[in-house]
Amino acid sequence: METRGSAASEVSVIVVSFNTIDKLRRCLTCLTDVHEVIVVDNDSADGSADMVELEFPHAKLIRNSENLGFGAANNRGSIVATGSFWLYLNSDAYAEPGAIEKLASVFADNTIVAAGGLLLWPDGRNQQCSSNHLTIGRVFLEQSLIEKVLQKLGREGYWNTDRLLSSGHTPQTPQVMGAAMMVRAKLETFDERFFLYCEDTDLCRRLEEHGRIVLEPEAKFIHDLGSSSKSNPWLGIARYNLGKELYFLFHHGKVAAWTCWMLNQLGALLRLGLYLLLSIVHFH
Quick one: which H or E segment has residue 255? Predict the structure, then answer.
């Protein structure tokens, strides 16, 4: 692991990079020199690390010799972070002006241990950025597609973003997304057994033991969701499902993990069946 460094500040922004050079450049351009910026590159093959070194010399750069995954790479960044707060920021997430400062301001309340920003699609629509606790029942709602029906009806399943945004203040929530999550430094780090997906779910579960987690709607970030998985979406889905299964294994045991695995398989079959049915209808 090779590292190169800069000065300290109240907020350390940790950005994990893996083959997203153009989006990483935009992400870093949206950050100000006020904050400590740490880029952890997971052995990208697109020149991301060299670009950071040449174009953003104020950033601390950590070059991993292999792809360690999202959580482990963030942990490498937190080792060298000097800020009182760590902002985990995806390389495909772009902070709007004042977003980081607004997110940091909520920590004036000493009971708050983590805060998530409002994630927006590139076209400005709200993105799901807050959720209830992950349970087997909510995995069933997701995999059976009932979750989508509930959303259309204005009802709540796993995601609680719409309800929180309608509350008109900085609401408490069990989980915010790791794409733009700020935490108090040195409370908890990511469980490195998760490679990609659900490591933020696990982290928030442990952070809840220390205090409150909130969503700050005024801290806005444009998020081009899933950039690192777009070249192989099926691998992304497989890793997401595995992340859920590991979460249940670590926190609820083998039976819960097996149940989650079965629901994931049934969900895949349901989607395949719907895809084939729609293909036949379209063909005729």
Answer: helix 254-283
Helix axes 233-252, 199-207, angle to 10 degrees: 30
Q: What is the DSSP annotation of 40-97?
A: EE---SSSHHHHHHHH-TTSEEEE-SS---HHHHHHHHHHH--SSEEEEEETTEEEPT
CA distance 182 to 75: 14
Residue appearing with tokens 């490498």:
76
Q: Where are the beta strands (DSSP E) in 178-281?
A: 180-184, 212-223
Average pLDDT, the chain: 93
Q: Is the pLDDT of residue 231 over 70?
A: no
Torsional sign, CA 204, 216, 241, 150: positive
Neighbour count for residue 43 (Cβ, 10 Å): 16
Residue-level pLDDT at 275: 80
Residue type, 48: S
**Residue whose C-alpha is closest to residue 79's, from 107, 97, 53, 60:** 60
- As to burial, measured by CB atoms within 10 angstroms (0-12 exposed, 13-18 middle, 19+ buried), residue 231 is exposed
The one-letter amino acid at 248: F
Q: Residue for token digits 């241990």?
A: 113
Buried b (16+ CB within 10 A) or exposed e, 57-95: eebbbbbbeebbbbbbbbbbbbebbebebbbbbbbbbbb
> CA distances (Å), 185 to each of 14, 88, 150, 233, in order?
12, 11, 37, 33
Q: Is the pLDDT of residue 229 over 70?
A: no
